[in-house]
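QA checklist item 7 of 12: single-chain prediction sanity check.
[x] sequence parsed
[x] length recorded as 433
[x] structure emitted
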Amino acid sequence: MQIWQLPIIDGAVPIVAYAIALAFLAIVLVRRWGRRSLLWGTLGAIAGGAIGVVLVVVVDRLHLFGPAPLPVFVVQWVAGALAASGLALGAMVGARVWRRIVSVIAVLVFLVVAAVGVNAAFGLNPTLGTLFGISGYDPIDLPAAGPTAGAAPSVPLAQSFVPPAGMPAKGSRGVQVIPATASEFRARPAGIYLPPAALVPNAPALPLVIMMMGHPGNPDPTAVSDALDQFASRNHGLAPIVVVADQVGAAVSDTACADSATYGRARTYVTHDVVAWAKAHLNIIQDPAYWTIAGYSNGGGCAISFGADYPSLWKNILDISGEPFPGSEQIANITKRVFGGDARAFEASKPVNIMAAAPAGTYAGMKAVFTVGGNDPAYIAHVDTVASAAQKAGMTVTRSVIPGVGHTGDALKLGLLEGFGALYPVLGLSVAQ
């Protein structure tokens, strides 16, 4: 395992990091305190904690991470880390040289551990690499297309596929560079998931999912791979092949999933370059009835937008805690920089308006699944609006509110489970239990 693949949400890494931080805090605290050092240490801790609270409030008010309020745990981690850092710096007064060195190192440890703690609570960057925007996965080997490549199955795969001896228990995950031939969009390597049924000789052609993550975020296949490995274990190794496409690009910009001179042709990249690459390189069923466009948060808004705009490409949509429309978090900036100041063009790009303007029958046979956290009221309202518009436009709609979940990691993990639970029968992948 490469260092970038170290898991930083579960496993030993967070536990070790927390233990190291506690050890440094103990070294800072256990000493003979003089009046001056005690005064400066106390003032440093109070000032650090206060700065942490103010910093989070300012970030929250400016909506730098979206319109939803930052969770309480962000305040706790940031204020706690800065309070501990202030204590360590104040404790340097009158201390020996070695203690001063330890205090400086302690500050760095406290800040790193706070980042690990906040990330673990959000649950969105599963590895050390993804925390820093670096893929922790190697390029994945793509099996040659099987004898049924491209053909829709005459009977559901769940009834026709017999798992051979030696089939892997879990799927394979990695990355692939998808050339931006038509779009010239500067995308990062796409995450790829191949389920167990794709890794056997004479593998059947499988359904396809093209998924997009949030902003900021990475085209990381971990979450969707973990979810689909669970489904595959109960369904003869069957799951869709997944491409996690990068709709925000190497600059990690909110492209509004549109083509623009400012941020590049993100829409063309996903709907043309990624689609063409998948058809040419993956052993997939090429009938749109077996294709799903999916996304989380920013990616969810893009998914429903692409689903509404290109119903001939995919007949299934999975929108997990999605924005009501691409660019919803910075409307003025997107209107100016993506749509050239044309507010009408921006309005026309919203999925509810795309669906309302579509001729009757456009969305016949389409399935749209929406999931959202029960503790995410702003996004519940968004989902209600968009799901209602999809149903009115003629899609078959499933809407799930997940109790006790906000807008962070659990919303993605549980949303994937809810979403694919609804889609598996549609894709012919459910084995009767």
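[x] summary fact logged: Residues 37 and 95 are 8 Å apart (CA to CA).
[ ] second reviewer sign-off
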